[in-house]
Amino acid sequence: MVGCGIYLALLAVLAAGCAALLRGPVLTLGILIPVVCIVSPVLGDLTGGVGRYLPDRAGQAVLHTVSSDGLGAWPGLAVLAGWAASAAFAGWRALERRDA
Predict the structure, then answer these.
(1) How many CB atoms lie within 10 A of CB 88?
(2) Residue 69, C-beta contacts closer than 8 angstroms, at least 6 positions apart
(3) How many Å apart are CA 56 and CA 77, to the nearest integer?
(4) Mean pLDDT on 8-30
(5) What 3-state DSSP class applies to 69?
(6) What is the mean pLDDT of residues 6-22?
(7) 3-state SS of 24-49?
(8) 3 state DSSP class of 72
(9) Quick one: pLDDT at residue 37?
(10) DSSP H stretches of helix in the chain
């Protein structure tokens, strides 16, 4: 249960960082919804394994008791935290540059 809360909080940080970077929620939703709903399931089924490192797919590993793609629960959250931290940092830098 704790992992689920952390997963949702990290997705919110990712969305907030993207919104700050892209200057609004409409473009952010226009990018994040297709990535989460279309791109991630399609790339997740490919054999290359690239899809398991996408933010939503990596974070969802904490919701499963047995790892099906080789990425465990806490390493998956670490990957999602990396995505969220980079989006938050990019949004912060963009806001700092625009407001300066």
Answers:
(1) 17
(2) 44, 49, 52, 57, 61
(3) 9
(4) 91
(5) coil
(6) 93
(7) CHHHHHHHHHHHHHHHHHHHHCCCCC
(8) coil
(9) 85
(10) 2-22, 25-34, 40-44, 55-59, 73-99
Instruction: Report pLDDT for 16.
Output: 93
Tokens in use for 30?
Answer: 């226009």
Confidence at residue 48, expressed as pLDDT on a 0 to 100 scale: 67
Place of tokens 């940080």: 13
Question: What's the whole-model pTM score?
Answer: 0.85
What distances in angstroms separate CA 26 from CA 8, 19, 42, one per listed residue?
20, 8, 24
Confidence of residue 42 (pLDDT cuts 50, 70, 90): confident
Q: How far apart are CA 23 and CA 29, in angstroms?
A: 12
Place of tokens 């990018």: 31
Q: Which tokens hold the place of 37?
A: 């709903």
Question: Each residue of 56-92: pLDDT tens digit?
Answer: 888 888 888 776 666 788 888 999 999 999 999 999 9
